[in-house]
Amino acid sequence: MISLIEHIEFLTLRHDCVVVPGWGAFIAQYESARYEALTGVTHSPRRVISFNARVEHSDGLLAQSLMRRESLTYDAACHAIEKCVAMFKQQFNADGQLSFGRVGYFTRGLNGAPLFMPILDGGNDACDIYYGLTDLTIHPLDFVVDRVSERDELRRRMVMPRWVKRAGQVAAAIVLLLGMTVVLTTPASLGEREREYAAVSLPGMNTASRPVFNWDKADMNLSIAMPVDHREAAQPVSQQGRYHLVVSSLSSREQFEDFLTSHPDLAQRARLIERDGKFRVIIASNDDKAELLKERAMLPAAYASSWICE
After folding, report:
1. What is the model's pLDDT at position 191?
2. Tens of pLDDT along 119-167?
3. Which range marks the domain in which residue 114 is found?
4. Do 22 and 130 share a domain, yes or no?
5. What is the pTM of this model?
6. Cα distance from N-terminal residue to C-terminal residue, the chain
7. Do residue 216 and residue 116 come from a single domain?
8. Which contacts (CB < 8 Å, 24+ apart) does range 182-185 have?
9. Interatomic CA distance for residues 24 and 100, integer angstroms
10. CA-CA distance, 180 to 203, in Å (whole number)?
11. Is residue 194 part of a domain?
C-alpha cells in the first residue's frame, strides 16, 4: 500500500513547495532570527510549513516521487494520488481532523474548511536545517547589575546583628548548664532493698540444654524453666544482678536457637529470660547499671540497638 504522507514528508524537507493535486499545496516559509527586548529572548531562525488550499494544479513533483520509489508509470502515480486524496477527504469529513505525520495536521475551521497546524518543534522534518538552534535568553548588563544589587541588599538586611547571635549563644549555654545540674544532682532510685540472687553458671555449648529464665511478678525472683527434653539439672547462672543488658526481643523460645546460630559471637554469653509472655536475650547482668552501660558501649556496631532493663 502506497503511503502518500511519507512522500510529502520527504519532499517538504527538500523543496519549498509541494502540491498535492485535489488537496492543496504545502509551502515552506523562512523566519529569520529576531530579538525581543521586552523578554530578552533571541529567537532562532526557523523554517515553517504553511498550507494553501487554493493551489490544486499538479506540478508533477509528487507524481515523480511515486514513480521513482514505487516503480509506477506517470498515469499510475496520478491515479494513486487521486485515491489517497479521496481517502483524506473521507477521513477528514468523518473525524474532523487529519494527521500528515511530522509535517503537521488538519483540523476543522470555523467555516468547516480544513485548517492546517504545522509542527514547529520536536519532530518536524521541515525544520531540520536549523536543528540544534534554540531560543536564547540574553539580559542587558544593567539589568544583571540591578538584580545583583537587589540580592546583596536583601542579604544585608537578613544578616543578624552580632549582639543578637552572642545573646543566643549565652542563653543556650545557660540552659545546658541548668540541665546538667538537674541530671547530676538527682539521685537514682535504687529501690527499697537490694535483691540477692543465687549465683549460677551457664551449661556447656549444648544448645538443647540451654535454660529459659521466667520472671515472676509476685516476688521478682528469677526462676529457671528447662526445655521439655532436658534430663539434667539446670546449672546455676553467673553474673546475676538487678539490671540486664538485652540485645534482642523474641516472640517464642524456638527463635532463641535461631538467634544463637546467626550470632555465634554471643553463644557463650547469651541467655533467655521470659517476662509477661515475652522473651528477651540478655548477655550480662549486674546490680550496677553504670557497669552495664560501659559494657554496652563496647559492643560492636551491630548491637547498637541493645538496651538495659530491670
Report:
1. 45
2. 865 444 455 566 566 777 876 666 555 666 677 766 666 655 666 667 7
3. 4-137
4. yes
5. 0.41
6. 87
7. no
8. none
9. 13
10. 44
11. no
